[in-house]
Structure formats: structure tokens, C-alpha cells
Amino acid sequence: MTKFIPLLFASLFAIPSHAADTYTIDPTHTWPMFEVSHLGFSIQRGRFDKSSGKITLDIAAKKGSVELVIDTASINMGFDKWDDKMKGPDFFSVVYFPTMTFTSDKIVFEDDRPVSATGELTLLGESRTVTLIISDFKCGTHPMLRKAMCGANISTTIKRSDFGMKKFIPSVGDEVKIYSPVEAYRD
After folding, report:
1. Quick one: which of 41, 145, 152, 181 has the fewest CB in 10 Å?
2. Hey, what domains does the chain have and what are their CATH numbers?
């Protein structure tokens, strides 16, 4: 029995401590979109077709981080001429600013669900603090790929003028709603 106690004690230290899980964003199911008022007559929508990033979640410790990178040249307004205008110097200036990013290590949890993430949104070389609302959070096993994954919907509202994008304000709205479905596979 006395030989068993040191072995048991040593085995307790060999058990790995619970670490955060890391997830890679699935770019085929993560499409950041936006809405902006157009001349007060309608709400126009656009999306970005390329995004990437990492999410870290430690649900037990109620901590995590997010890094989302959006390829600004992948903007899709539905019309080539409009896409070209949005890529130009009056709006996203993709030659000089090929990405916009959101990074956060401040995730708020309610029970075992993340409900918001506060971090830095960088657009056109300007960084501002933004809070993303997280809804419909769910983790599980992808039914076809049999891989662990999490998904959610995110949203926030910004003023584009805060990032130096001022062309056509107020005719084209200053307030921009940003939202996206997000799916990510556990690494």
C-alpha cells in the first residue's frame, strides 16, 4: 500500500490541466456582411467573400479570444462596377488596406455561452474599440464531417467616419450595421 501512494500522487500531476480549445474559422460559412442607408431610400447590403481567423474558448474559465481577418478586396456588392468603387480610395482603399481585422481577448459569458466580445476593429489603418454581440452560440459535432465545431451569429454597429471613411455622408449613411454567421472547427 505504501508503494501505491507515491504512484497515485505522481499520476495526479501527470493529468493535463484543462486548456482552452482553439478553433479555426471556416471561411465557407463565415461571410461578414454590412448594411448602410442609401440616400434615405433604402438599406443597401454588401458582404466580404473571404475571411479567416482563430477563436480560443475556455468555457470552464469563461475566457477566450478572437482574431478575425477580412479580405477587403473580396467585397461583393452584386455588381462589378459597384465592387470596384467600394474597393477604391473613397471607401475601402484595398490597395493600401487589404484587410480589416477584429481582435479581442475580452469575452463575456452568461452561463456557458459567450454573449459578447470587446476588442479592436482596425479598418483603413484606424483602430477603434468595438463590442460584438454573440447570439445563437452552439458547439457540437458537424453531422457530416464528424469534427468538433462551434457556431454563432455576431453583430455590431459602427460609424464609418470614425475610421476615416467619410465619402458621401450624410447621403450614404454614417452608421453601418455589421453582422456575420461564424462557424469554426476545433483544431
Report:
1. 41
2. 20-186 (2.40.128.110)
